[in-house]
Task: inverse folding
């Protein structure tokens, strides 16, 4: 289990997204409120953004976020109009290390996954390997279920390049359901192409992990849209009035030109 967050809106420095909110991902690394199957997110962190040439960039560290002495300088210096970040709690069997730390990227895509697939190594890994090409498998650097989910999405997009990202995500989730054989899977995924954010709140044979979104949090610039495992702010009244829960088994799409869209999975 992990905690994740994404931002889409007017350009802001990383600090405003990752560190400053009262219940930021930084704080969620050591004081999460809705984390299941773990107590801390101390097995690394990472964030991604889109650089001046519109290609994705990532920064990953396999150590706890609070131990990174470079972060304060990076956070006050880097600015972007889209951010994607996570703090990691490693699942048993998936070693700590930079290769297993998210976000993952490929071409114009950034990807993070909050959750796990039960008995992945003995159940789903082989089936995903059979479903993906040798070229896509060669791009897998670590051994996590998360990276293999990303590979499955990439395979759909390779086979059918015109497939909308939301459909590629749905195809991935449906395929996992077919293969699971009754095992648990927590499948909160956030994917972005640098224009839109796509976020699923989904699970199989277990309750869904928490996921929230907002389009009017006054702590962020006007027009900002965010999605996060836990509410980043509580609002002036202390009741998290700006944030809404993503319904279980739904896909959320955040678009800079459109209101949020929810699609049932």
Result:
């Amino acid at each position: 289990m992990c905690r994740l967050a994404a931002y889409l809106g007017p350009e802001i420095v990383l600090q405003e997204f990752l560190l400053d909110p009262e219940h930021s991902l930084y704080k969620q690394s050591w004081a999460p409120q809705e984390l299941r199957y773990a107590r801390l997110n101390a097995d690394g962190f990472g964030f991604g953004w889109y650089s001046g040439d519109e290609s994705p960039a990532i920064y990953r560290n396999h150590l706890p976020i609070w131990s990174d002495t470079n972060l304060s300088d990076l956070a006050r210096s880097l600015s972007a109009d889209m951010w994607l970040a996570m703090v990691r709690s490693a699942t048993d069997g998936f070693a700590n290390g930079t290769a297993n730390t998210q976000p993952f990227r490929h071409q114009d895509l950034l990807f993070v996954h909050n959750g796990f697939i039960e008995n992945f190594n003995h159940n789903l890994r082989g089936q995903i390997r059979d479903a993906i090409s040798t070229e896509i498998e060669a791009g897998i650097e670590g051994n996590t279920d998360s990276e293999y989910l990303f590979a499955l999405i990439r395979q759909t997009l390779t086979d059918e390049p015109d497939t909308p990202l939301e459909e590629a995500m749905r195809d991935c989730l449906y395929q996992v359901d077919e293969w699971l054989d009754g095992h648990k899977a927590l499948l909160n995924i956030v994917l972005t192409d640098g224009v839109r954010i796509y976020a699923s709140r989904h699970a199989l044979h277990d309750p869904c992990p928490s996921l929230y979104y907002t389009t009017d949090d006054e702590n962020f610039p006007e027009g900002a849209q965010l999605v996060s495992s836990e509410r980043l702010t509580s609002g002036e009244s202390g009741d998290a009035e700006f944030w809404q829960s993503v319904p279980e088994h739904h896909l959320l799409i955040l678009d800079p030109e459109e209101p949020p869209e929810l699609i049932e999975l």
